[in-house]
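Minutes, project check-in
Item: structure for the 197-residue chain
Input as provided by the requester:
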Amino acid sequence: IWVQGLVALCGNLVVVVWRCRDLQGRKVHSLLITNLAVGDFLMGVYLIIIAGTDWYYRGVYMLHEQAWRGSHLCHLAGFVSTFSSELSVLTLTIITLDRLICIIFPLRFARLSVRNAVRVICAVWLIVFLISVVPLSGMDYFQNFYGRSGVCLALHVTPAQPPGWEYSVGVFLVLNLLSFLIIAFSYIWMFFVAKKT
């Protein structure tokens, strides 16, 4: 986990710094790739939190399991992991749709401008923030949503169907499957158009 976390942190930090040079040229693609790198960087933050917790509680975790799973740090880690994964998924969907318009409909639709790209990114950030923060709202429906597993993940798709499992299914299965289908269909369409031309 340490290695994956550090690689995610360092690698995506390099991408953000490298792409920030292109942002001064106001390139939409660089803006979207930077946004993707920020999302992946946050996954590195989550991994380092989990690795640090593992190191801290090594050998005595069972004595502190309930305290850890109910802690603010566990809830923060769950929030960061959900925010990161959904930000990455939705950003990849936007990148794909931008490429689809550019390749399939180059003259019919205008390409995404920098101003509109910033608006779309802000909307995605707001949506992802709301998706990630709602389980922390204190509603009875969620009942320690992020603290149900030792690694503070929000994927509660189990036969036991704990409170909030529908939310997990909606976000991690339905939303992500919809994004996957959009991405897959778009690239298949682009492939056949490129092959034909």
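Outcome recorded: The chain has a mean pLDDT of 90.
No further action items on this chain.
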